């Protein structure tokens, strides 16, 4: 069966862990029945080989619970009814293993299989409880319901995805479920014997509940749970015999959890302690009853949860290593992608240098040679302006090439913003415009990135005035801080006469608007109603530092984190 939503890779990994865990589960089921049935006295009423057959029939199917959980549920439900009719104490073991199979089915299967299995579990449990003479009234209906519903709830809860974290996952809800499962196990396994011991019924009930609650510590505090349960096993053996077998089962489960995380030295100590506690709980009467086969069986019974725990611990360590290797591989892919991007930027920079810089440099050299050959006057001034402009273009081009080669410098301006603005005004005045610069003193205190963007907007705005209005046009450039924003205004008057506009790509205003939006501001451009043109931009100051910090941190993040931050 394939659970909904599970990919084929996930499902195949769950199925490909080998038969070792299946053998351990089967062995644990057999050992549990030998412990429960032997302690209950079945060995005195039936031959040993009969008890062995019943133990195999109860425990071996658990080896298939991971692959065929519904079939195991069906087998255990039928076998529970058979054992109940024959009066075999194996019914106590099967009554414990059946909810485990239901929980596994709920974890891996779909509802079309879970519902029939839960119904079979409830029916078999009801038959097991009612047959010995217990009145099956409205006060006991919750027992079959709980034996079928609680495992389903636990199994479905464990289906929820668990994000890998270092150490023990901090999920108190899972600890509460374990504690509730321990209480349900203790109560359902011992409640019929509460009135047959030395303790009052209420004391016996609270003792069983307290023993079950210790299961909630097994995941987060396995050493504490192991020590506490060892004391409870000895206490139950001396004063509450009805709970000794059930407490012994929880104790062995906690031993497996402890072995899953503890080093070998502490695992060996725990094995010796658990063997001694189990021997004191199991051995009754004269020491002559202690034989080598029984000692070997006891040692094997205690070793079984340790083997399972160590195996699960190794598998978990392997899974963590696989996750770490996958994370390292993703980082390596991201670094390779970044290296490829830098290589492409380097190639573009070389192409720009070879094509553009070469021609601009040649233009500057020819303008310089022509300047010395030409007479003084407007021609010489134009050649001088061409030469200085070419030098400035080369400087800006070098800065652009540096940005292409090193993306971490993309937020840095290539020149001082105020100098860029003054230089742009001087050049436009030299080209025939009448530009007045109004630079507020507080504007120089704005963040560098904001001033650089404002300088580029001024450059583009004055270029548009020269293109569309022509020489002789009056223009005003205003830079100043108003409130928490830096205001940029480029105001141009009406052209002095008819003029054909120069060719334009139409991308100037769009580029300026995108530059302003990148800093959280806005830009508007349009006629001023008096024949002129008005370009106004507002660049917030309080968001600039945060935007730059986010840009810098995003540049240091891996590509998959960068995409999530951007979205």
UniProtKB/TrEMBL annotation:
Regions that span the bilayer: 20-36, 48-65, 113-135, 200-218, 230-258, 295-313
Catalytic reaction list: ATP + protein L-histidine = ADP + protein N-phospho-L-histidine
InterPro entries referenced in this protein's UniProt entry, alphabetically: HATPase_C_sf, Sensor_HK_TwoCompSys, Sig_transdc_His_kin_sub3_dim/P
GO molecular function: ATP binding; phosphorelay sensor kinase activity; protein dimerization activity
Pfam families membership: HisKA_3
Keywords: ATP-binding, Kinase, Membrane, Nucleotide-binding, Phosphoprotein, Transferase, Transmembrane, Transmembrane helix, Two-component regulatory system
Record's keyword annotation contains Transmembrane helix: yes
EC number(s) reported in the record: 2.7.13.3
Residues in Signal transduction histidine kinase subgroup 3 dimerisation and phosphoacceptor domain copies: 344-407
Xref: CDD domains: HATPase_UhpB-NarQ-NarX-like
GO cellular component: membrane
Name under which the protein is recorded: histidine kinase
